[in-house]
Amino acid sequence: MTQPFSAEADVVLHAAAWTNVDGAEADPAGAELVNVGGTRNVAALGVPVAYYSSDYVFDGSKGEPYVESDDPRPTSVYGRTKLEGEREVRDGWIVRSSWLFGWTGTNFVRTMLRLAGERDELAVVADQVGSPTYVGHLAEATRELLALPHGIWHLAAEGECSWAGFARAVFEEAGLECRVREITTEELGRPAPRPAYSVLRSEREGAPRLPHWREGLRECLARL
Questions:
Q1: 78 catalytic residue (yes or no)
Q2: Residue 183: which CATH number?
């Protein structure tokens, strides 16, 4: 028999989302159904929710790290639906993070490793800057966060880099011979706009600190 949720004891870690940024541009209704409607359903359970949001709620024009009090201005369907999902959470924590990667699923690190086995050179965007965040470190920071007040929190790795810089680091740490050719976002030609600079930092007292993204990369590669 399924046990009911206890409002005193339970927390929902809501990480499910439509994460296909370009696909959201082609199917905004589908992205809204998942990111907004799905979050509304989770919030209706009546227990505190830790909702994982995104750096893409910002437009990237600030030129310095975004903090919790900055006004979000998403430029893509994905960013808009993640922001609308945030507004469905009445009781819990909104966890904004960025450029997530890990040892499972589809993410930048696993994609770079796969492509490096097929090609000698990869074209990677160099005019988008963020903080690649290892999911293992984000999970540890979330555990700390659950003892802190509800509200918006920015949890992202220390340091920053471009996608091209991140790709080079992946190859260096993995010991792979693959050249990185830097290109622009315009040259890549993806349907969805991306923020040029979306580094996240917290201005809130007691915010969990995550290790540098390069340390996260090493830990991730050790698990592959």
A1: yes
A2: 3.40.50.720
